Every structure is written in structure tokens, then in C-alpha cells.
Amino acid sequence: MELPGHVHTLVVGAGFAGIGLAARMLHTWPDADVLVIERAPSVGGTWRDNTYPGCACDVPTSLYSFSFAPGAGWSHTFARQPEILAYLEGVAADTGVLERVIVDCALEDAQWDGRVWQVRTGRGALTADVVVAATGALSAPSVPDLPGLESFSGTTFHSASWNHGHDLTGERVAVVGTGASAVQFVPEIADRAAYLTVFQRTPAWVIPRLDREFSSAEKRLYRRFPFVQKAFRGSVYGFRELLGGVLAHATWLLPVFTAIAKLHLRRQVRDRGLRRRLTPDYTIGCKRILLSNDWLRTLDRGDVEVVASRAAAVTPDGIVDGEGIEHPVDTIVFATGFTPTEPPVAHLLRAADGTSLARSWAGSPTAYKGTTVSGFPNLFLLYGPNTNLGHSSIVYMLESQIAYVLDALHGMRREGWTAFEVDADVQQTYNAAVQDDLRSTVWNAGGCRSWYLDARGRNSVQWPTFTFEFRRRLRRFDSENYTVSSR
């Protein structure tokens, strides 16, 4: 497919957000003038990129799928990466989105010129009436700038860019980071490596992952009676919303979860000293709660060492910890997460005066309803500021945003709007209310420093309350809060 000279709606990114929006646009308007550009050679987003051993979803599969394409063939209650990728590829093909995608086409720059977006990509230039940034919050791996890293004589890579061509068998492997990806791949590589050294800056609360296989009978039932699957999805959603309410606001119930996590730790780790190193000193839920049935057990192995210190520097033959002790290793795997408060796409989106979105945010992202930004007309952000969750599925939040975007596009068609920009005071008032709601939550008041907090110490990541409240607020495009231009 050739890059057109102009398109009405340009979607940047072909992961869950981009595929979901384009699919709903084509369902609503089969003639929709929509184009999706993707920097990689194929669709799938984070589920295409993250192929590390054991990669799986930590949200129930029932929720981690589009409501318009629930899928009846999932193998587990917590789906594995290959299944999720195949699912996204299938949705893109079945809905006609794949025909609207140009791959190997990275966004290089996009500036609003007062009338349209002037866009430059790796395949050429075009203009667009509307730009939708659907690049996600987990698209840019974060690798710490450790002194001496360039001198390391072994192999290094990030878990989000797993080097499958490198054999870890018999090697001394260092894992830097103990977050959501590490708890999945460390148990998978422990048997291959000769010795594992895990650098833990801050321990995490870990509870069991209640994972099981869907039976053949369940799959047949879902295929034959879709309403049964819909009802099951609803029950899982309801339970998760209750869980979210507890995590965010009912802090008096958090000791129950703490007790579960401590029991899980006691059952899987025999060494009392190691248990102490693996016990957090902050309130459960302040950082992301990790789900695993074998992470703690793996750390208790004789050929695995937990260094309760940051990785301070790298030498040609190893890593030096915060105490100045060098640990000889052959391979370093960084499990250090992403940069959700500093998305790379923000550097590429520019207002009419040339100011980038990143510069406008100055390290502390804000948006109206997580979706639009004052000063940047005809721009939508999917998975924008303060839309992340600690209990449920981001897909639900994305579908809420998609409905908002579709209503705005409907207004462009029906009313002849050419441009819309959220009023600055409306955006400021909205974000002040969100921050006020976050103040008493465990993410803000739990006594930890997490990736939810940006460079200013402000929580610009989490949504503070129930997801159905977010959906209610985005049920229609509230043009009265925008400056709207018409033909």
C-alpha cells in the first residue's frame, strides 16, 4: 500500500489501541478515510515486541480482549503472548484493518499548521485532518545508563527485545529489575543458566496467579452461546472493579491482601533471611502487585542469588552492586520496564508554534479525559495520561476512549467541524480533580516510589476510581468544552 498524499484520520500505531479504533471506524463507516502507520514490520504492538520466555498477560483473558471480538478459543484464563498476538492479527484481518495499515512506516514528525497536520514519516510525507497517537505506554524500553556498560565483554539486551539467538545455557546471567516481566521469564531461564544473579532495588508484593486451562466444553459453550461468555466476562469485570475499589480507596482492607502475599512468600521461600529481603516496606498496591506461582520459589534456589541492591556500575566481566561488590556475569538482561510518563511520540507531535507535546508537558503529562490536549487541535491520545489501571484491563479503557473519538469524528461528519481544541481551563480543572481523587489512594499514599509518579512526583499514570466512571465521562464528545471551528 502506497502512502497517500492526504488522509482524514491518521492512526499512529497498530497495537490494541490502533487496531481497536480502526476496526470500530470501519464498522461504523465502511467508507472511513482512515490510515494506520506502524513503525514495525507487522501489527501487534507490545505483544509483537515482547517475546521473552514465559510472556503472558497478567489480566484475565476474559477482559483482555475487545468486547466486539471476545474470542472463544483462549487456552488459559491468563493468555500467553503468542495467543494474544495471533488474536490481534486475526482481529486486524477480520475487520479489514489490515488493508489500511502501512508497516515499516515510522512517524518522524507531525505539526499542526492551523488547518491540517503536516506529517513526515519514514516513507514520505502526507497531511491529515486528525491524528490519533495509539503508540501505547509500553513501547519504549527503559535501559539504565550504568557507568561502564559499554565496556561489558558479554551480551546485553532488554526483556522487551529478547535476543533469541543468544543461548543462555551454562551462562552466568544477571537480571536487572524485579518487575512484571522478570517474574515471568526468570523461572523460565533458571534451569538453563549456570547461575542467576537478580538485582532487586525494591521488593514487590507477589500473590498467586489463579491460572487454569479452559476446558474443551467451555470453549464449545462459548462458541455456541456467546451470551454465556459475555456473562462470564461481566462477572470477572465486576469482581475486578471491587478489587480496584479496595486497592484505591478501601485501605482498611489491604491487610487481607498483605496476609495473602506474606503466606505465599512463606510457603515458597524457606530461607528466613531471603524472605526478609523479599518483603516490601510499603503498603501493598502502592507498586504494581505481581502475579506468579513460581517466581518466589525460583529465587529460593541454590543457583539463584538475590542482590538486594541496585546495579551501580558495569565492568568488562560483571556488575558492581550498590555496596561495591562485583558479581561476575556473562549476560545481562534488563527487566527495567518502560517510560510511560515520557512517551517518545510526544517528542514528534508539535503545536502550530513548533512546541512539542513533550516540551509542553515538561516531564509531567496531562490531558483532558486522558484523550485530548489544549494547544494541539485534532489530536487524540489513546492510553493517554491517567488512564492506566492497577486492577483491570486497559482494553476497557481504550474502548471507552474509542467511543469518545468516534463521537467526535461523527460530529465532524454531521456538523462539518474542521477543528476542535479542548479549552485550557477545562483541561486544568479536570486534571486538578483527578489529582485530588488520587491523593488518598494507595498509589500516592502507600509509601513507595513507583513508575506511576513522573519527574515532578505527580501521578500522571493511574486512573483514580472505577472504570465505569471513566466510561460514563467519555460516553459522548462534549463539544461545549472545546473551541470548535466549522466550514
TrEMBL record:
What the entry lists under InterPro entries is as follows:
FAD-bind_Monooxygenase_sf (IPR051209), FAD/NAD-bd_sf (IPR036188)
Q: Which organism is it from?
A: Rhodococcus triatomae
What is the name listed in the Swiss-Prot or TrEMBL entry for this protein? Predicted flavoprotein CzcO associated with the cation diffusion facilitator CzcD
